[in-house]
Each structure stands twice: as C-alpha cells, then as structure tokens.
Amino acid sequence: MPFKNTSAYLPECLESILSQTETNWELIAVNDHSTDNSLEVINAFAGKDTRIQVLQNKGNGIIPALQTAYAQSCGQFVTRMDSDDIMPRTKLENLVQPLIKNGQGHLTTGLVKYFSDDEIGDGYQKYEDWLNEMTQTGSNFDDLYKECVIPSHCWMIHKEDLASVNAFEPEVYPEDYDLCFRFYKKELNVIGVDKV
Predict the structure, then answer these.
(1) Helices of type H across the chain
(2) CA 20 to 30 Å from 132, out of 9, 37, 46, 112?
(3) What is the side-by-side strand order in the sheet with 106-110?
(4) Dist CA 146 CA 180 (whole Å)
C-alpha cells in the first residue's frame, strides 16, 4: 500500500484491514514522501500490530513505492490497497479462497463500490456498473481496450504469477491498466468473485 498525504483516510483504511476475517496477512505500507502526518498515523498502527511494516519510498511516485513493497513481501499471495480506500471485512478471505482452490494461473477480482460523503457522479456510477457486470460474467478481458478492467484495489494473485508478468517493473502510467495488459498477455484466468 503506497501512501502519500492521506492522513484523513488512513485510520479508517487501516481499521478495515485490521478487521479482516482472514487474519494471516502482512501490510507493507510505503511512504511516498508525505508532507502531512500520514507517517505518524501509520506508525501508530504499526506500533500496535506487527503485521504492519512501514517503509520509505527511495524513489518518487506510486510505481517505485509499489516496487519497494513488492520486494519486501513474503506472502504466497499479493493484493493491492489504496490508502484512501476501505476493505469490506471479507475481502481477503473472498479473494484468496478461489486462488487456493484453483492454483496458479489465476487471479481473482471482486466487485467495486464507489462511495463518498457527497453524491457519486454519473461517470463513477457507470464505471462501477460496467466493472461489476464484467466481473460477474467473467468477461473482464473482453473490454480490455476500453478502460482498466481490473481496478488496482480489487485483485489478488499468486506471487509467482505476479512475478511472471514482471509485477510492478515497467514504469508505465497508469500502472493498473498496464498490469491488466500483462495479466492478459500471460493468459491468466480471471475468477470473478460476486462480492464487493
């Protein structure tokens, strides 16, 4: 989880991770040169839970931050988290179970739900509906050339499969869309999980 100047969102984000029904996880949070008190917020959480590791981004930007986190990860499965998002309590459990059952060569993705204190705009609502329809029908790669078909915060994959597509190596932006093309090229099978 890269983070930069998201102190307003980090407590709720981190609480959602701590409340996961799947408890065997590690969070590698990489500070991308925050100038607010994000680092202090996350260090307070890390001081109470050894599953949270906090690192500094030696580069600049999201891709070097992702590379830093990935290099330190030691789990069998990898997923992304954005520091201004929250996880439903069963996210990790729902995404990992199909991977355990089906083995390598697969990635899981779940439904998305955009939210805000204000009303969600029409564009976000259409994007959410489009993503969720593809995930429910298992047709994510069918519309690959329209827009990012697997959002960065909604997938999980075997670490070996992520390594086989060069993980976060190409410094191409937007990084989530680039990664989708590499998932597709590797012919990974998408397992849609019908839950947010």
Answers:
(1) 10-18, 38-46, 62-72, 91-102, 122-137, 159-164, 175-185
(2) 9
(3) 77-79, 155-158, 106-110, 189-193
(4) 12
Burial of 78 (0-12, 13-18, 19+ CB in 10 A): buried
Tell me which amino acid residue 196 is. V
What single letter denotes the amino acid at residue 108? Answer: T
Query: What is the pTM assigned to this prediction?
Result: 0.94
Instruction: Compute and round to an integer the Cα radius of gyration of the chain.
Output: 16
